[in-house]
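Researcher: Next entry in the queue.
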Amino acid sequence: MVMSRPPEGRAMPGDDLNNERTCRNCRFWRPHVHYTFIGYCSLHYRLTMEDYSCDSWEQIKIIDHEFYWCSTCKTRIMGIEAAIHLKEGHRVHKGAYIDPDVREELYSVF
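Model: Structure for this entry, 110 residues:
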């Protein structure tokens, strides 16, 4: 398994980002709750950037009675709502990644 960055020349605003074969659109990827450009790959057990890719990429499939995470709205939604969010251009994932060391960030605020 080799993780790689896509070639330069990223998609322009308005392009359909939900059809790219990158981590951000893979069913195994969970975006960080606060920093959505970083996420956790549940297949390879590692953190990756949203624009990385690998040979194990699989399109996310929306199932009506399952929960999903909308990283655009930062909320949990059901499958029926997830389909609507996708049509509106939102980023929908199987779940979210919560960093176990996020408590350290809380202490730095005070």
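Model: Helices lie at 79-87, 102-109.
Researcher: Noted, moving on.
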